[in-house]
Amino acid sequence: MSIDLETARKVAKLARIRVEDEHLPELAQEFNAILGLIDHLNEVDVEGVEPMTSVTPQRLKRRVDVVTDGDQPAKVLANAPDAREGFFAVPKVVE
């Protein structure tokens, strides 16, 4: 697969980055280099290789998954423009 100037322009627009027309050939060349690297990586046989998160075997620390109220209701409600009886107060929007 090869990236032409029009495709590079479209990718830049989708990424919301401004690329001047004189820099489009350079951008297209960089895209082609990236795609070449991906093609090269796709040639590697990874059959039977376990996915890993680190080069050293280790388990991540885990905590008990318990639902709490955060034990800080006063700090949370301090950010509210209007709070009543321990809850956020909002204007009525349904009649």
UniProtKB/TrEMBL annotation:
It is an enzyme of class 6 (ligase). The keyword Kinase does not apply. Its EC number is 6.3.5.-. SUPFAM superfamilies: Glu-tRNAGln amidotransferase C subunit (SSF141000). Gene3D superfamilies: Glu-tRNAGln amidotransferase C subunit, N-terminal domain. It catalyses: L-aspartyl-tRNA(Asn) + L-glutamine + ATP + H2O = L-asparaginyl-tRNA(Asn) + L-glutamate + ADP + phosphate + 2 H(+); L-glutamyl-tRNA(Gln) + L-glutamine + ATP + H2O = L-glutaminyl-tRNA(Gln) + L-glutamate + ADP + phosphate + H(+). The keyword Transcription does not apply. This is Aspartyl/glutamyl-tRNA(Asn/Gln) amidotransferase subunit C. It comes from Palleronia caenipelagi. The gene is gatC.
